[in-house]
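User: Let's play a game. I give you a shape written as tokens, and you guess the letters that built it. Ready? Here's round one.
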């Protein structure tokens, strides 16, 4: 019988993070879901330990905690962040600090949501930062590192809804699965399924096409 484990997640108020938390709460493999948020998500469950934290002090907030698995769903935009520097601070610095703290707390498996086109050598700033994060996480030496690269995310962003994404979503559905838009619910379910795999080892990149089937 599989031992129940502790899973950490950051970015749980985002489009993918919300869905991932719901899927993790349903997974028998996890007995506690520690969710770090900047504002309350509204989600409740006996298994959910949600904490509103100062992301500038993530290490202090997690110093006495244990983790088996950790998932990073942090994701912003330059418009939301206000500048390229602040975007990198959120999507790279926060994510890397979270990973280091998870590793120190015992996590053997780290999962991160980056993006289709992530590449540390990309001329596109967004893709370059995502690629730099992947490279930095690889260097930490987790026993298992799973990198999830979804295409355009489809779902209800509420007040943060992006007009361009709403207009592009119907057209994206006509494209091959490798670049087709994907529902955030599928990505969240895929993350929970990947996180529950105790046999995971090494570095694995999961492209958007594979997420369609994993999250079905």
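Assistant: Ready! My guess for every position:
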């Amino acid at each position: 019988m599989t031992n129940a484990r502790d899973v950490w997640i950051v970015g749980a108020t985002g489009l993918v993070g919300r869905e991932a938390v719901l899927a993790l709460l349903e997974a028998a493999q996890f007995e506690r879901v520690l969710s770090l948020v900047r504002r309350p998500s509204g989600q409740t469950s006996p298994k959910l330990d949600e904490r509103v934290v100062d992301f500038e002090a993530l290490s202090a907030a997690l110093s006495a905690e244990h983790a088996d698995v950790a998932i990073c769903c942090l994701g912003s935009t330059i418009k939301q962040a206000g500048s390229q520097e602040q975007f990198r601070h959120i999507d790279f610095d926060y994510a890397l600090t979270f990973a280091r703290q998870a590793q120190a707390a015992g996590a053997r498996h780290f999962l991160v949501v980056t993006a289709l086109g992530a590449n540390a050598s990309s001329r596109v700033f967004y893709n370059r930062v995502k690629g730099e994060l992947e490279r930095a996480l690889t260097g930490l030496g987790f026993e298992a590192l799973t990198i999830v690269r979804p295409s355009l995310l489809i779902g209800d962003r509420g007040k943060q809804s992006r007009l361009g994404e709403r207009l592009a979503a119907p057209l994206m559905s006509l494209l091959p699965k490798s670049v087709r838009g994907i529902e955030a619910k599928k990505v969240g379910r895929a993350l929970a399924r990947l996180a529950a795999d105790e046999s995971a080892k090494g570095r694995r990149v999961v492209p958007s096409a594979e997420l369609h089937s994993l999250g079905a």
